[in-house]
Design a protein that fits this description.
The protein has 8 helices and 7 strands. The protein is an alpha+beta fold. α1 crosses α2. The longest helix is centred in the middle third of the chain and has 16 residues. It binds zinc ion. Zinc ion binds next to loops. The site of zinc ion (ZN) has 6 residues, from loops.
Amino acid sequence: MQEIIRQLLSELGEDASREGLLDTPKRVEKSLRFLTGGYQADVDEILNNALFTVDYNEMVIVKDIDFYSLCEHHLLPFFGKCHVAYIPNGRVVGLSKIPRLVDIFSRRLQVQERLTNQIAETILEKINPLGVAVVMEATHLCMSMRGVEKQNSFAVTSSMLGAFRDNARTRMEFLELIKLRSAVRTPSDLVESDCVLDK
Ligand SMILES: [Zn+2]
């Protein structure tokens, strides 16, 4: 990978052999391996020793989880907050595992919609709750840095499954509890996000 990064620097018009850039290929490789480390992570390994049987059927919410991901169209960061809720059906997962799950799927090349769905569907599959809700609010540097419609560089996506899809009151309770940065929006108002593609 380092040789490719050296080539990339040259293509950009840089002198890859100047002092400041000498170790850059090594650093970039290390950083990219970390930022895409989610491909190597094993969801089962992380969750399996953290699932507990309990008699609790109220909504569990973990909000304001910081996440950082890379958009697959430009390899530029998008980042923000993730809010997760589920209604247990006899089983709960250790609370610290939810941010770990968000990390696993964030540290890949992503689009925000798929990232949101993957987190929700994994919780549905592994914990088998009555419902799952995931909302992600993110700023996309591929839009804000490139000056493409700056006001739209912030995107909100949601995935509502089970009780959160079927029951408007449950969904509203969740949205009220996470209090989205700019007023509470119903899922139908949520912005369709996509970074702007250069055709
Ligand atoms: Zn992008």
